[in-house]
Amino acid sequence: MHRTFLVIGYSFFVLLFTHAASAAGTNKDDAAIYGTSNNDSFKKLPKPLNQYATVERARAIELGVDSLGLVEKLKVRIKDQPLNLVATILFFCAIFHTFIAGRILKMAHQAEQDHALFIKEDSRRYHLGKNRVSFKGTALHFLGEVEAVFGIWLIPLILYITFSNDWHTATHYIDSRNYTEPLFVVVIMAIAASRPVVSFAETALSSVAAIGRKTPAAWWLSILVIAPLLGSFITEPAAMTIAALLLGHQFYRYNPSQKFKYATLGLLFVNISVGGTLTHFAAPPVLMVASVWEWTMPYMLTNFGWRA
């Protein structure tokens, strides 16, 4: 038991340290984000929004209007910086890829099964007894990994920046990004998915579920009500990870109907957002703008929290 509390204590230490680093990262000025190098041989991407004012004003004068509409403004920005269009298209491709990742995984499993059948029927023997690997199955399995989707679509983006500008521009674009927020989310989710944290949360929620005699309905209600509220203190990603794992242990193992499964997940996503509006550090989107817009915990609670 003492080992469990030791791991939990260490986990929360890492959580607080990472959160402090994330909060510090949001206070960086534009010079830190876009780079402070004196080397002007490459373009600094993306182009700041205030630099489009000149071309937008010129286009408005050309059309004889006071201000441009949304569509015309987008056209001007795409013409001035084609990367805007390319990045948007690649982003929607990544979103579409995310939705079909499950189907790609099924294709990968089918390809691996066909390859295993081929190996079984093949009389040839390979070096050191190693069988041939299904390249098709392996490639499809990689393309079907949801975690790799946006990394995969980053490749054509970097290639476009390289060929439309140069290699130094592409590397500067990568080096000038702020990775604090995604790393913060990865660390938080990794800690939240660890056995000590899940066991501790399950023990805490079991006391609430005990009011309903720990029936599946009592567990379902306690997980969907209490766990999202924890997100205001342990952050949304951690609360969502813990709630999803506990739902798997205490609810989905009873194999409810397909509609009820998806309805539960949808309700979890909505409820998690409630916990994120109670404090100024729980939700990653709020964390990114909290210091800039001066959103404090009382401000979040009085303007968003009680309404949620």
Characterise the protein shown here.
The relative contact order is 0.09. This protein has helices at residues 2-25, 30-34, 53-63, 70-80, 83-99, 101-121, 135-143, 149-164, 167-175, 180-192, 195-209, 216-234, 236-250, 258-276, 284-293, 297-305. It has 2 domains: 83-177, no CATH class; 185-305, no CATH class. Helix 1 (2-25) runs antiparallel to helix 10, helix 11 packs across helix 12 (216-234) and helix 12 runs parallel beside helix 14 (258-276). It is mostly helical and 308 residues long. The protein is flat and about 70 Å long. The chain has 16 helices and no strands.
Any descriptors?
308 residues; mainly alpha; 2 domains; flat; disordered N terminus
SS field, number of helical segments:
16
Order of helices and strands: HHHHHHHHHHHHHHHH
Q: What is the 3D shape?
A: flat
Class based on secondary structure composition and strand pairing: mainly alpha
Number of domains: 2
The largest sheet, given as strand count, sense and whether it forms a barrel, is:
none
Mean pLDDT: 79
Uncertain segments are 1-8, 10-39
**How big a fraction of the residues is strand?**
under 5%
Instruction: List how many beta strands DSSP finds.
Output: 0
What's the N-to-C terminus distance?
Answer: 37 Å
What percent of the residues sit in helical stretches (DSSP H or I)? over 70%
Rounded to an integer in angstroms, the radius of gyration calculated over CA atoms is 25 Å
